[in-house]
Amino acid sequence: MQPFVFTAKTSTGGRSVGFRDAKSRSALAEQLRKEKMTLGTAYGLPRAFARSGKIKPSDNLVLNEQLAQLLSRGVPLVEALEVVAETVTPAARATVVKMREMVAAGSSFSDCCRDLGVFDTVTVAVYKAAERSGDLAGAARQIAITTRRTLTVAGRAVTLMVYPIIVMTISVFVAFGMLTLVVPKLGPALKEMNADLPWFSKAIIGLGTAMSENLLIIGVLLVAAVTALVYFRKQIARGVVVTARKTPLLRDVLTTQEAVRFFSVMAAMSRSGVPLADAMGTANQTITHPAMRKQMERLRTRLIEGGQWRTLVEEVSSLPVATRKLLIAAERSGDLEAAFNSLAMDMTEELDRRSSRFLAVLQPLMVVVMFGLIGSLLMSLLVPLITMGTGR
């Protein structure tokens, strides 16, 4: 798939500008034609700008909520998908329409989801198990619950990321403005008024003067840096995650996020009647924390080999002791499905608490960072003035 920036004429005579992935320009024109738009111009972008191709979690939530409601009321799957196609966003509408066409042609719903490649392995596995048990509506409802939890987790993650980014961006812009606009004007005046400037004042004045005289070069470097960030975003993201996992407080938040995803998937798989070892095989794919995933994979392997759940769970040190005890008790009572669902809800609440705690620590830290960037510039200008005013 190649990303395109395009313009198109709508059925009402207006003009639309958008960004969309397509196999070719003709495929893009066909997509727009189905939405009653006529392609005007289209410019291909580097494939690094292409989206993942997976259906968005928000559309996945709407799709499964609608399917659960309609199927539970006896609406045929083909008609239910036709209704869903009108409720999802335009980006996902073509996918749902294709699903309806494939189901109407005789394909199973899980095979459609797998062949289209826009759903994750967890969703496909749950649908496949639900078709065997005849409870597709229940599976859709459970996936909707899992997706809602995923969106909650993602929302918390975005909050933790956006806050420092906004603060740092504002600080950098203010500092850049002071260096290129204020310092070059005040620097020469300070030098004339006081020949013996502190070393840090001289350094700041020299830096500001150099930046103001080379704005074009700085602009080119910024464009190059942004381009590099886009092309190497995956490597940068991996580095950020590795660093975050070693940061106090934040590593606890990330570990809780992993637990929420794992138990939400296990609840969905168990609800569909998937055997425990098979469910873990799918749920383990959602874990990105190396230590936790290694322990869970070892648990699954030894479980398949005939090990006892209660003994194996005790060895998973990445899970809290209370969580392990609950899983052992649930296995003894034969109610692991309820335990997984309960743990997913409890971990979501714990994630809120830990995220709030981390933000409470992060806010004063960001104030210190802002003072370090902006305050140092102000002090480089104020110290010479104060020195001159006191006669020292």
Provide tags for this entry.
three-stranded antiparallel β-sheet; 3 domains; 392 residues; flat; mainly alpha
Number of domains: 3
**What helical percentage do the residues reach?**
over 70%
Total number of helices: 16
How big is the Rg? Answer: 28 Å
Strand order of the largest sheet: 2-1-3
User: What is the beta-strand fraction?
Assistant: 5-15%
Mean pLDDT: 82
The biggest sheet amounts to: 3 strands, antiparallel
Q: What is the N-to-C order of secondary-structure elements (H for helix, E for strand)? A: EEHEHHHHHHHHHHHHHHH
Structural class: mainly alpha
Amino- and carboxy-terminal Cα gap:
68 Å
Low-confidence sequence ranges: none
The count of β-strands is 3
The coarse overall form would be flat
Write the layout of secondary structure elements.
Layout: E1 2-10, E2 15-22, H1 25-34, E3 37-44, H2 57-72, H3 77-85, H4 90-104, H5 109-116, H6 121-133, H7 136-193, H8 199-213, H9 215-231, H10 233-244, H11 250-271, H12 276-283, H13 290-304, H14 309-313, H15 321-333, H16 336-390
Antiparallel strand pairs: 1-2, 1-3
Helix pairs in contact: 2-3, 2-7, 3-4, 4-5, 5-6, 6-7, 7-8, 7-11, 7-16, 8-16, 11-12, 11-16, 15-16
Question: Can you walk me through this structure?
Answer:
The protein is mainly α. It has helices at residues 25-34, 57-72, 77-85, 90-104, 109-116, 121-133, 136-193, 199-213, 215-231, 233-244, 250-271, 276-283, 290-304, 309-313, 321-333, 336-390; strands spanning 2-10, 15-22, 37-44. Strands 2-1-3 form a 3-stranded antiparallel beta sheet, with helices on one face. The longest helix has 58 residues, at 136-193. It is flat.
